[in-house]
């Protein structure tokens, strides 16, 4: 059976911590040749900085060979059917890293692939980000278990994957979003079920102040995700009052850390300069993409 990572819950809750532990080992200098002689096909239909760089460098660190395709080169489902692209990539490479729009596209790709397929962001999930996020929380707090994490803003792909990962590790995530932008009901329920045995939970509220009370971590992401640009004006109105700024962080626990998956839009979901606040760990998070994904690739291949 081929191991895919299309959504965070494709791995069991007890499989998360070993990936994070290995990521921390690799970051500390452990070496690996897990991908020696293997090729990693990286196909993105949306822009990327961190994801492309981290998969590319991560593949090389494990002795593998990355091959990157930009959207216009392949035309996934347009120039060539998704199933055919999956078959061709499976014949010539050893793992496929896909960033696309609909979750159904990556599911269809995986159904036709005979190599592991990794979700490098869809409209529904960003599971690799959630591994880097929980690695970062582990580094900051010692453990995700029992951590109180507040996510302020859109109940989007980043929030969904974070919910599964935090709950699966026994942490507690509270998401504060305006009406119309809350977590999908099936993921709110799904993440609570996924995290139940570990004692983790995900809660949806409306008030940012309620979410950040006593939080160890305050996290936000853009209000308008890639592909939603036509909704920007409407979203600016809907998310008024949801900005993370020093005053909101002051309402959290005294040692609170601020997280953002980047890129950020200062003046919108964060105040100017917040990435450089002494409480911010967003660039640690960015670096951890490299290590968490290297550990993930080791496991899947
Ligand atoms: N929610 C954002 C994350 C970017 C890394 C998006 O999908 O555009």
UniProtKB/TrEMBL annotation:
<dbReference type="InterPro" id="IPR036901">
    <property type="entry name" value="Asp/Orn_carbamoylTrfase_sf"/>
</dbReference>
<feature type="domain" description="Aspartate/ornithine carbamoyltransferase Asp/Orn-binding">
    <location>
        <begin position="145"/>
        <end position="298"/>
    </location>
</feature>
<dbReference type="InterPro" id="IPR002292">
    <property type="entry name" value="Orn/put_carbamltrans"/>
</dbReference>
<protein>
    <recommendedName>
        <fullName>Ornithine carbamoyltransferase</fullName>
        <ecNumber>2.1.3.3</ecNumber>
    </recommendedName>
</protein>
<dbReference type="GO" id="GO:0019240">
    <property type="term" value="P:citrulline biosynthetic process"/>
</dbReference>
<keyword id="KW-0808">Transferase</keyword>
<dbReference type="InterPro" id="IPR006130">
    <property type="entry name" value="Asp/Orn_carbamoylTrfase"/>
</dbReference>
<dbReference type="Pfam" id="PF00185">
    <property type="entry name" value="OTCace"/>
</dbReference>
<dbReference type="InterPro" id="IPR006132">
    <property type="entry name" value="Asp/Orn_carbamoyltranf_P-bd"/>
</dbReference>
<dbReference type="Pfam" id="PF02729">
    <property type="entry name" value="OTCace_N"/>
</dbReference>
<feature type="domain" description="Aspartate/ornithine carbamoyltransferase carbamoyl-P binding">
    <location>
        <begin position="4"/>
        <end position="139"/>
    </location>
</feature>
<dbReference type="GO" id="GO:0004585">
    <property type="term" value="F:ornithine carbamoyltransferase activity"/>
</dbReference>
<dbReference type="InterPro" id="IPR006131">
    <property type="entry name" value="Asp_carbamoyltransf_Asp/Orn-bd"/>
</dbReference>
<comment type="similarity">
    <text>Belongs to the aspartate/ornithine carbamoyltransferase superfamily.</text>
</comment>
<dbReference type="GO" id="GO:0042450">
    <property type="term" value="P:L-arginine biosynthetic process via ornithine"/>
</dbReference>
<dbReference type="GO" id="GO:0016597">
    <property type="term" value="F:amino acid binding"/>
</dbReference>
């Amino acid at each position: 059976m081929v191991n895919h990572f299309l959504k965070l819950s494709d791995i069991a809750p007890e499989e998360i911590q070993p990936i994070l532990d290995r990521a921390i080992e690799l970051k500390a200098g452990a070496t690996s040749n897990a991908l020696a002689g293997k090729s990693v096909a990286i196909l993105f239909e949306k822009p990327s900085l961190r994801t492309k760089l981290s998969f590319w460098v991560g593949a090389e660190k494990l002795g593998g060979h990355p091959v990157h395709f930009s959207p216009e080169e392949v035309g996934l489902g347009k120039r060539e059917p998704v199933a055919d692209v999956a078959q061709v990539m499976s014949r010539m490479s050893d793992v496929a890293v896909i960033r696309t729009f609909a979750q159904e596209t990556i599911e269809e790709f995986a159904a036709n692939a005979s190599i592991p397929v990794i979700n490098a962001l869809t409209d529904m999930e960003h599971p690799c980000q959630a591994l880097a996020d929980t690695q970062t929380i582990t580094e900051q707090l010692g453990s995700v278990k029992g951590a109180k994490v507040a996510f302020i803003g859109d109940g989007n792909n980043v929030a969904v994957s974070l919910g599964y990962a935090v709950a699966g590790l026994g942490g507690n995530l509270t998401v504060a979003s305006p009406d119309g932008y809350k977590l999908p009901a099936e993921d709110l329920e799904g993440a609570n079920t996924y995290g139940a045995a570990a004692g983790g939970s995900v809660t949806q509220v409306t008030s940012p102040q309620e979410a950040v009370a006593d939080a160890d971590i305050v996290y936000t992401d853009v209000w308008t995700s890639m592909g939603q640009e036509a909704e920007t004006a409407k979203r600016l109105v809907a998310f008024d009052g949801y900005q993370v700024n020093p005053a909101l962080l002051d309402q959290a626990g005294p040692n609170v850390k601020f997280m953002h998956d980047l890129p950020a839009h200062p003046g919108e979901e964060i105040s100017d300069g917040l990435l450089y606040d002494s409480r911010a760990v967003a660039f640690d998070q960015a670096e951890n993409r490299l290590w968490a994904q290297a550990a993930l690739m080791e496991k899947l291949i």
